[in-house]
Amino acid sequence: MLLDSLIIGGGVSGISCALVLGSAQQKNFAKDKKITIITHQKTSALQDAIFYNAYGIVPGTLGSELLHTSTAHLAESYPHITQIQNEKVIKIEGTFPEFMVTTNKSTYKTATVVIGIGSTNTFDIEGLMNYVETHQKSLPIKNRIQLRNKDHKVAEGIYVIGTLAGWRSQLAIAAGSGAAVATDLLTLWNEGEQTHAHDSIREK
Ligand SMILES: Cc1cc2nc3c(=O)[nH]c(=O)nc-3n(C[C@H](O)[C@H](O)[C@H](O)COP(=O)(O)OP(=O)(O)OC[C@H]3O[C@@H](n4cnc5c(N)ncnc54)[C@H](O)[C@@H]3O)c2cc1C
């Protein structure tokens, strides 16, 4: 099966991207899209965080709680998005519109890939190493990396989100970055016509 999009990373940016894509399911151009997210969470920055300054999040919420509630939210609201736990991506091959993504347990074929796995310098996904560069918005002593990109686009069909896209490490920024790429994908699927995904209490 060829997926339309595979999101790699179940932290802030990855889940945010999946939620916006999931919420577009009523739109004709999005309703048949096959979307999967790899929700490996072991190395998430959320594991040790506690939040008092993130928009919409109850002050004092633990990052470790968000790892559970965010995937539960995605599963409950948008069950058509497949979540794959406990797999780590090790290789990406191919070009748009057919990539082969290899994990430690399986392989997936996808037209587009979204990478949100954080900016630590342990990054070692084969096929993407040529795009690795020094993080432009963190202290050199932290030794962070980013993937070279233009407005999140690394290459045709490859997008990077969150801190790995070169953003500073704040939850709201990472979430916004994932949401931004979701709307880029929706616009791509809408044949280039600008779009976004809103819910409203007013009748349509
Ligand atoms: C201790 C601490 C405190 C913080 N406090 C605050 C705060 O008070 N306010 C604030 O705004 N921000 C805070 N942050 C920052 C915030 O948590 C990050 O900016 C945000 O989590 C970055 O999101 P991301 O999606 O880029 O990365 P992450 O949320 O780290 O998500 C990356 C995901 O990718 C997964 N992954 C990694 N490698 C692979 C692989 N090969 N294959 C598949 N999946 C993989 C990881 O397991 C993880 O789930 C804090 C961070 C830390 C560490």
Structure, described:
This protein has 204 residues and is of the alpha/beta class. The chain has three helices and twelve strands. Strands 1, 2, 5, 6, 7, 8, 11 and 12 form an eight-stranded mixed β-sheet that branches. Strands 3-4 form a two-stranded antiparallel sheet. A two-stranded antiparallel sheet has the order 9-10. The chain is globular, with a radius of gyration of 16 Å. Bound molecules: flavin-adenine dinucleotide. Flavin-adenine dinucleotide (FAD) binds next to helix 1 and helix 3.
In short:
This protein has 204 residues and is an alpha/beta fold. The protein has helices at residues 12-23, 63-77, 171-189; strands at residues 2-8, 35-38, 50-51, 61-62, 82-84, 89-95, 98-103, 107-115, 132-134, 145-147, 153-155, 158-160.
Highlighted features:
single chain; 204 residues; alpha/beta; two-stranded antiparallel sheet; globular; binds flavin-adenine dinucleotide
Number of extended strands = 12
Counting helices, strands and paired strands, the structural category is alpha/beta
Beta-strand residue percentage: 25-35%
Q: Give the CA-based shape.
A: globular
**Poorly predicted parts:** none
Helix content: 10-25%
- Cα separation of the termini: 34 Å
Arithmetic mean pLDDT: 96
Report the bound ligands by name, code or SMILES: flavin-adenine dinucleotide
Order of helices and strands: EHEEEHEEEEEEEEH
Radius of gyration: 16 Å
Number of helices: 3
